[in-house]
Every structure is written in C-alpha cells, then in structure tokens.
Amino acid sequence: MPISEAQRKAVRKYNAKAYDRLEISVPKGRKAEYQTHAESRGESLNGFVNRAIDNQVKQDKAVDAFIVQPAEEDQAEAERKIHDAPEGSANAQKQSGHRDHSAKDNVAERAKILAKAKRTAEE
C-alpha cells in the first residue's frame, strides 16, 4: 500500500520539528564503505554517524577533563613559586624550559592514555 501524500506531509512536518539536518561530504567511495560497516553492525548509516560523533565528543570531553587551567589569581601564585624555586628543583627546570610541556602536549598524552585504556577494555 503506497504512502499517501498527507502521510508524507505529516512525516516531513514532524521531521522538521524533531531533527536538525546535517550534511557532510566524504571522499568518493567512503560512503559505500561506511554504509557497509553500519549494516554489518545492524544499524543505519545515520545511526552509525551519530554514534561515531557521540563517541568522539565523549572522548574529547574526557581528554579535556584532564587539563586543569589555573584561575587568574592562581596563575600569579604559580609563577611566583616557579620564580622562587631553588636551582635544580623541578620548578626551576620548568622555568628554564627543560621540562616544559604545553597544554597541547598534555592533550596528546592524555589521548594516548585513553586510547590505550579503550583498547585494553575492548580486549
């Protein structure tokens, strides 16, 4: 039994209210690859893309949670401690740049740790 025009109109109206649309572009051939992968897992391409995005957002938030940035008043205190640290201490080394790690390095390191933990959990 074919779907009536009224039914199509009702579905379009509902979808417009309930969903945001997102258009993505992928290299030629990748859509078929993703479609096959999704079907092998028993889900639609849309469901797979939503799951992939949700998982990445969760992973990014977990990495971000490990990065602690001091408040402005704490920053001045941290700088004073580095300045006042005796020669040879970890803080003095940090001040001279010997052990200086940027936030970007911290994110990369945390991402490696999380990836390793995820692989271990999957095994």
Architecture overview:
This protein has 123 residues and is an all-alpha fold. It folds into two domains: 27-65; 70-123, no CATH class. It has helices at 5-18, 30-40, 45-65, 72-84, 90-96, 103-122. The protein is elongated and about 85 Å long.
Structural descriptors:
single chain; mainly alpha; 0% strand; 2 domains
Please render the helix and strand layout as text.
Elements: H1 5-18, H2 30-40, H3 45-65, H4 72-84, H5 90-96, H6 103-122
Helix pairs in contact: 3-6, 4-5
Order of helices and strands: HHHHHH
Helix residue percentage: 55-70%
The major beta sheet can be summarized as: none
What is the helix tally?
6
Give the tally of structural domains.
Answer: 2
State mean pLDDT (0 to 100 scale). Answer: 78
Structural class: mainly alpha
User: In percent terms, what proportion of residues is strand?
Assistant: under 5%
- Radius of gyration (Å): 25 Å
* Spatial shape: elongated
- In terms of per-residue confidence, which ranges show pLDDT below 50 for 5 or more consecutive residues? 89-93, 95-100
Compute the number of strand runs: 0
Taking the alpha carbons of the first and last residues, their distance comes to: 48 Å
Short description:
The protein has 123 residues and is an all-alpha fold. It folds into two domains: 27-65; 70-123, no CATH class.
